[in-house]
Each structure stands twice: as C-alpha cells, then as structure tokens.
Amino acid sequence: MAAAPPVHPADGHDLLRVHGARENNLRDVSVELPKRRLTVFTGVSGSGKSSLVFGTIAAESQRLVDETYSAFLQGLMPGRARPDVDVLDGLTTAIVVDQERMGANARSTVGTATDAGAMLRILFSRLGQPHLGGPQAYSFNVASASGSGALKVGDGKAVHKSFTVTGGMCPRCEGLGRVDDLDLTALFDASLSLNEGAITVPGYSTEGWYARIWAGCGFFDPDKPVSEFTETELHDLLHREPTKVSVDGINLTYEGLVPKIRKSFLSKDVDALQPHVRAFVERAATFAPCPACDGTRLSEGARSSRVAGLSIADVCALQVTDVAAWVRGLEEPSVAPLLGALQGLLDSFVEVGLGYLTLDRATGTLSGGESQRTKMVRHLGSSLTDVTYVFDEPSSGLHPHDVERLTALLRRLRDKGNTVLVVEHKPEVVAVADHVVDLGPGAGSAGGTVCFEGTVEELRASSTLTGRHLADRTPLKAEVRTPTGVLPVRGATRHNLRDVDVDLPLGVLLVVTGVAGSGKSSLVHGSLSREVDGRPVVRVDQTPIKGSRRSNPATWTGLLEPVRKAFAKANGVKPALFSANSAGACPVCSGAGVVYVDLAVGGGVSTTCEACEGRRFDASVLEHRLGGKDISEVLEMPVAEAVGFFAAGESRVPAAHAVLARLDAVGLGYLRLGQPLTTLSGGERQRLRLATAMASPGGVLVLDEPTTGLHLADVEHLLGLLDRLVDDGTSVVVVEHHQAVVAHADRVVDMGPGAGHDGGRVVFEGTPAELVADATTLTGQHLAAYLA
Ligand code: ADP
Ligand code: ADP
Ligand code: ZN
Ligand code: ZN
C-alpha cells in the first residue's frame, strides 16, 4: 500500500487548485488536488475526466510553458487557447504520458526514443574493438533521438530542426534499414490528363493544391493525356529536382512525384500511415531489407566493432532482458557509471513490462499501451522533480501481473517529489491512489460534476457509482456456451509464436489472455484473417478513423443520409442542402465550423468560424426544420436524446433510429452526432466501430482490449452486448486483461508463460472454471484471486 500518508485536501496547504472549470461538459468544476501525491480520476466514459485532466490542467500548464519562449519561437508554434476555467493555481510543468502512437519517422526505434541507443553508442565508442571513434560513429540517426514526441511540453518540438549526422549510418539506405522499389504505373493513369485526375497518389486530387501547381508551373500541359507526354515532361512529372516556381503569384517549390512520395510516405513507418495512404504504399512500393547493411541501418564500420563478442546491431536485436544480462557481464571500471545508468534504464523497461521489446523495434509498430510505457521509461530516469505527470489509463495492455509493477512505478514517480495524475478504471490502480476524484454521475450533459473527492477507503464507503462498483466481482457463468466449430491453427510462427497448434473455438465468447508480449495479438491477428469458414472477419480496434475534419458520428455511420432525406421531404427542398460538405455549407468555413490555418511549422490552429458561429451551415438552410429542430440542432444532440427524437412523430426516421440505438447500446449515448471524429478517444473509436459491426451479425468479431476507457459499470454493459452478439450467431474473439471479461468468457486461450522469447506458447485452453482449477498459469492464479 501507499507509503505516504494520505493527505486530505483540507489539511494541506500545498495544493493544485482548479476553480470553475467549464471545458466541454464540465459544470463549473472546482477541485483541490494534493501536490506530490498520486491522484486517480474515475468516472464513466464521457463523464469529463479527460476534459478536466488533459483539457484543463495539462493544457494550461502547456500554454504557460509556451509563453516562456521568445516571441520568435512563439510565432512558430500553434497558438493555444486558454482553457475555460476561472482560476488554476499551484500548477507545475506538466508532462503528458499518453497512448498516442510515437514518431512516424521510420528511423525512430525503441532505442532512439529512449536514452538506451545513445548510451550504447557511448559504450561502443569507449569499449568497441576495433576502435572507431566517438558515439556518432555508431549512430544511424541523431535527429530522432529528440523527435519522438514523447515530451509534449517544454521540448520545443515545434521548432525542432531535423538534421542527420551521417557518422555510422548505412550510406545505401540512409539509415532506414530497407530499400524500396516504386511501381511507377501505380502512380498515374496514363490515359488521363492531369486535369482529369491522372495522378492516383493520395492527396494529389484535382481539387487540391497540386492541381494548381501542375497547371501553373509551366512544365507541362495539364490537359494533355500523360501517355502523350514527351520524355522531358514525363521526367519533370516523376523525377524533377526541387525547382522554385511561381504559381498565381505565390512562390513554391516544385518537385517530381517520386522524390515527393519517398519523402512524405516511404520514409515513414507503414503502420503509422493513415489507412488509405498505407493501402497506396502497399500497392505501389515493395520494400526489401537493405542488402548493404542487412537491415541494421549501420555502416560497415559500425557493424564490425564489437564489445564482448557483439556488435551494436547485435545488441539492439536482442530483447531488453537479454541486453540487461549482457550489460551485467561487462566488467570495465572505466565506464562503471555508464554501465550503472544503462542497467538502471534497462531495469525500467522490465519494470514497466516491456522487457520483451528489442531496441531496434520501430516505434511505429508499438501498440498504444506499449508506446505509453516506452514514454514512461524516458521519465523514470529523469532527475526532474516537482513536475506534474499526467497518465491516460497506464494499465492498458497490461496483465494483472504487470499492473502490480506499474503501480509501484507510479508511486516511485510520486516519491521523487512529483504530482502524479492518473485517469484509470482498473480497481488495482485506483487502490493505490492517495486521493481519488470521481466525476459524473453520468456521461456528457449528465456528467461534468465532481461526485466524490477523498481517499480510496472513503470512496469504497461512498454511494457513488464508482464506489459501489469497486468491490464488484463478475462471477464465473454457471453455464458456458459450447463452441459451434473451431478454427484450427497449425504451426503458427508469427513474431514470437513457437510453432503454435491450437483449435480456436468459434460461436462463443473467446477471450485470449496472457502477459504483455506473450503473443496474443500475434496469434489472433495472424490466424484470423479476412475470412474464416466463409464468415467475414471484422477487426474492431482503436486506430484513428479515416476521414476529413468534417467527419463525425452522423456522417461516418451513414445515419445522416436518411435524416437529410427526411429534412428534404418535410421542407420540399433537395437533400444535398443539408450536407455540410456541399450545397448548404457555410461558405466561409466550407462546412467545417472552424477555420483552420495550416502553419509551415508545427501543425495548425483552428478557430470557430465567425460567419456561422460553428454551426457549419448557411443561414438559409437553418430555416428548414424537422420536428422543430434545424439540422445544426440535430447535430448538436447527444445520441441518447436523438434515439427518442427519431423514434416517433413528425421526426420519425427508422433507419437513423436503428443506427442510434446501436450507438447507445455500445455506451456512446453521450456523444453528440456532430462531434468531430478527430476528437474521439481510442476507446470511443473502437465502440463506434463496434456499433457498426453489430449491424451485420454472423461473422467473426475480433476486439482488442475493448474495455479501454470503460468504467466498471460500462464493462457490465459491454459484456451484455457481447452476449447478445454471440447469441445472434457472431463469433466473438477478445484480447483482454480485464478480470470481469475473462470471468465472463465461454472459453479462454492463455498465451505465455512469459513475454517475447519466454512466451509464444498456448499454456491453457478451456473454460474459465478450468483455468481457475488448473492454477498453474499466472492468468489462472490472478483470476482465482479476483474471484476469492
Ligand atoms: P472522459 O474522459 O470521462 O471519458 P471526456 O472529458 O472525454 O470524458 O468527455 C466529456 C464530454 O465532453 C463528453 O460528452 C464528450 O463527448 C465531450 N467532448 C470531449 N472532447 C470534446 C471535444 N474536443 N469537442 C467537443 N466535445 C468533446
Ligand atoms: P501481446 O499481444 O501478447 O502483447 P504481441 O503479439 O504483441 O504480444 O507480441 C509478441 C512478441 O512479438 C513480442 O516479443 C513482440 O515484441 C513481438 N512483436 C509484436 N509485433 C511486432 C512487430 N510489428 N515487429 C516485430 N516484433 C513484434
Ligand atoms: Zn542499409
Ligand atoms: Zn462557417
């Protein structure tokens, strides 16, 4: 239990005070948080936790840090609006450790994103034989060491100038570790002219900027089919070196498609690209490990130098637990402090449950939870104190066994004199809080108030939803379903899988368990591909949803279509009028509701459109009503309210009602129909996809940690939903750590016994009751303890 005495805000004078916070749904929230303590924020999904912790406290701290930069630097950074709050005091610099994926730069690896890579380079420059020179002789990339995006505040990231020191970099692949071959025929349709849309590269549409550049640069005739281009024209289109041109009085740089694509798509991790860009890259480019460096990214010299028999590339290809053993074997007094620091860093990896990663793993391939824990590693060794660390569900992706170590780490950060704020749902994490703030009572407009503030003991005794659920235990089911079939998996070897043979039960709720890195995703994603026995496989994950800034739940789910028709019918006008991206759009913001200014450096700034006041439609469109509401008011409605609105009366729209009922069922009742998809959390995106998948039962549904972002009360709801899906004939396969979900399973496949090369086997397959009785697996032991 917590070493520090619980501090009640009333007795402390050292407080972080929030007064009158009103971001999003917050209703004049005031809280006093004890500094240098661990505070956990609880509450149902949509209750306002992120709005308070990230949107108010962390946002204001970041804004204040920005203000300390010179006017010149500030001019280059996106402006931040002050959060809607009356008073915030006692604030210290906030460091946000979230689940956002790390650096899309293909040169960014786990080694470069932490200090491990830099420390190894120093080590090799001191001890390597033959001796090559300073640390840069072992570097394939210097820029990414500071560009991984882990530190959101105070790293001046926005003005970071990328430079690469060529020292130890493989000259052939320039440190990427791979070479590419572009299929030029995938870039254009030769039968068309540029103005007809010959270019088939994402982002190069005929309405975009590039069309204007092609038309204005003077290198070719935009109305001539590409097949009739002269050799020079074709060369200019595909390969021309950067050349200054003036288009419509604006000075720009023109560059051929091939170098442009290399820079903007191929130098990034394929996994980190948007789905439509990824599809293009997969179609147009083939990658092979660089033949010169064998994929190690290092020059020949850098690969030849060895310490205790291993080159730096060899060390980076070991999993962290093995690197730690190798470092322990080095006895070299001259570098003892460095070895100590490196050992400490590697131990941090193990402590956060990442001992199975290799340092050469591209950061773009890490899951959200893995990314967050990698960022955490960067801070554990830091000597900063009196910082406010802000975590977003740090337990996600972690087995109960790993959660114990995680909570120890959070306490260690606190004991170094930092204020630790954590948004979490898992009772194991809530249990170690010094102070708990519970938001609610409901979601959206039914939330936004502080229902409880105090110690965990006081929370348990309270009558709040969270308090009541904290001691809840989902029991094993008296009767589990019998599989209707199996998917035989034979000789699976993806990643760490050890020639796995297993029959995955179908027609049931199957939960795949195991510690982080044991091989759950490798098994599930490797064996459940597009189709199983003629049933489509639908993967419901948390990755960003493709779409423009104008996309929202109403457009994405298609429910707006029938609503537009109903508006048109009721008013005797055309449906297109009610579309925010065509006829009826506000002419100033083109229906975005915001005016977005792209900056050359550091992203962009958006402000509410003054013409339509964010309503997105032309004033004349808003005169048309359905059931008393205009289209903008409809888009402002939360799902739960819209379900009723479209159920009956003049505004009855059965097709929209059906979609809304599913959105409500997955726990998104608080979401406004017009809320931009870009503002949804990973968990919300996953539930949105789940609602869509529910429309066509009968397939195989694969979910990756669907409890992310869900309160214990929401988890029960989710389980009911999964039950209904299985009863309707859907096979549900869930990768989960949440004990309630494991207990509720029909069948469990447990991977392990450990992570990385210590995992990769199926250690158990059977019912949850058998898993508990078996008691030889970590998962079984933890489930038994949970049920006790
Ligand atoms: P929690 O973190 O507890 O899940 P949030 O703070 O994310 O809750 O959300 C609280 C409410 O504010 C919800 O109704 C949500 O839909 C809304 N909301 C969150 N972010 C935005 C945003 N960027 N724009 C508009 N509404 C938002
Ligand atoms: P889990 O889902 O149980 O956390 P994973 O299937 O993600 O486990 O990982 C199992 C092993 O495979 C780990 O050693 C992990 O580092 C490795 N691995 C997973 N994804 C990749 C990848 N994209 N590239 C290389 N190794 C990977
Ligand atoms: Zn190379
Ligand atoms: Zn507008």
UniProtKB/TrEMBL annotation:
Range of residues in the leader sequence: none
Domain ABC transporter: 171-466, 480-778
Superkingdom of the source species: Bacteria
Gene Ontology BP terms: DNA repair
InterPro entries: AAA+_ATPase, ABC_transporter-like_ATP-bd, ABC_transporter-like_CS, P-loop_NTPase
Compartments where found: Cytoplasm
Keywords (A to Z) from UniProt: ATP-binding, Cytoplasm, DNA damage, DNA excision, DNA repair, DNA-binding, Excision nuclease, Nucleotide-binding, Repeat
GO molecular function, one term: ATP hydrolysis activity
One GO location term (cellular component): cytoplasm
Family, per entry: Belongs to the ABC transporter superfamily. UvrA family.
Protein name: UvrABC system protein A
Species: Pseudokineococcus lusitanus
